[in-house]
């Protein structure tokens, strides 16, 4: 018999609201995506805890609060093209797919990419394109993007990704190394790039 995750999911959404996530569209997207399908079978009971969980290839699925915070920071209106660096389980891509026109997701580990593609196909989420490769190079054929999100840590945001961001576009990324990592929001203007640190993170 399938476990009913609805009470735990409702509790998680209330927790995220209490932690300051106020974007109702982002919360609705998290509510629509079944996180239990993105974690290993043995950990499904923990799907709606506000915690990161291990997935294949020694990677993790991010804590729901971080997913919500990064999603909220992108300020999606529904028509954007979004580049995601680091597909992982596909969970963040699935959330974004409910909020934008199309997600372009790059993953360097083939087993993760194949699993994510199959999972999202089963969920009938069809506005995501996938690529196996080095996310630091971006996706030049489709650029420029309205939004870019990095779900993996980087010492410094690659310049090539900034160049693939539209004027007026927003990028959200964990930048820095070790304990000095910060979640930053970068807005590209015609003659400058404005960075704003949101919070310390560990990716």
Describe this structure in words.
- The chain has 203 residues and is of the alpha/beta class.
- The protein is built from 6 helices and 9 strands.
- It has a 7-stranded mixed β-sheet.
- Strand 3 (81-85), helix 4 (91-97) and strand 4 form a beta-alpha-beta unit.
- 39% of the residues are buried.
Q: Into which percent range does the helicity of residues fall?
A: 25-40%
The number of distinct β-strands equals 9
Q: Overall 3D geometry?
A: globular
Give the SSE string. Answer: HHEEHEHEHEEHEEE
Oligomeric organization of the protein chains: single chain
- SS element count, helices: 6
Which secondary-structure class do the elements indicate?
alpha/beta
* Poorly predicted residue ranges: none
Radius of gyration: 16 Å
Strand order of the largest sheet: 5-4-3-6-7-8-9
Which band does the percent of strand residues land in?
25-35%
The largest β sheet comes out as: 7 strands, mixed
Q: What does the average pLDDT come to? A: 93
Report the end-to-end length measured between terminal Cα atoms. Answer: 35 Å
Task: List its traits.
203 residues, 28% helix, 7-stranded mixed beta sheet, two-stranded antiparallel ribbon
Topology:
Blueprint: H1 6-18, H2 24-32, E1 53-54, E2 60-61, H3 64-73, E3 81-85, H4 91-97, E4 102-107, H5 110-122, E5 128-132, E6 145-150, H6 159-163, E7 165-175, E8 182-188, E9 193-200
Q: What's the gist of this structure?
A:
The chain has 203 residues and is of the alpha/beta class.
